[in-house]
């Protein structure tokens, strides 16, 4: 599947650009908070032991908006990879 913006109408391109701008603003505004949430989730690992991954999934499922939950998930993955 090709995603060539030149094949889109002006209105479709504008809509895509608006969504990119919205997501970038959400990322800029919430990156620090997402990192803090990820650190909180990681800090629970020793206490939650074998149930930690399940607990993290439930915590992420409860976060909103979904884009923020994805940011936190990404930060958790980065912290886990760095710890290995």
Please provide a written account of the structure.
This protein is an all-alpha fold and 84 residues long. The protein has one domain (8-83). The chain contains four helices and no strands. The chain has helices at residues 10-43, 45-48, 52-61, 66-83. The protein is elongated. The N and C termini lie far apart (36 Å). The model has no long low-confidence stretch (mean pLDDT 93).
Index terms:
84 residues, mainly alpha
Layout of secondary structure:
Layout: H1 10-43, H2 45-48, H3 52-61, H4 66-83
Helix pairs in contact: 1-4
Short description:
With 84 residues, the protein is mainly α. 79% of the residues lie in helices and 0% in strands.
Task: Summarize the biggest pleated sheet.
Answer: none
By secondary-structure content and strand pairing, the structural class works out as: mainly alpha
- Terminus-to-terminus distance: 36 Å
Overall tally of domains = 1
As a percent range, the share of strand residues is under 5%
From N to C, what is the helix and strand string?
HHHH
Helix content bin? over 70%
Number of helices: 4
The count of β-strands is 0
Chain-averaged pLDDT: 93
Low-confidence stretches: none
Shape: elongated
Supply Rg. Answer: 17 Å
């Amino acid at each position: 599947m090709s995603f060539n913006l030149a094949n889109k109408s002006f209105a479709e391109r504008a809509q895509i650009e608006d969504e990119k701008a919205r997501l970038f603003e959400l990322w800029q505004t919430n990156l620090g908070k997402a990192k803090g949430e990820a650190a909180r989730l990681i800090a629970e690992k020793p206490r939650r032991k074998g149930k930690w991954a399940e607990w993290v999934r439930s915590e992420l499922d409860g976060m909103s908006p979904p884009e923020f939950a994805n940011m936190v998930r990404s930060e958790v993955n980065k912290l886990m990879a760095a710890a290995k």
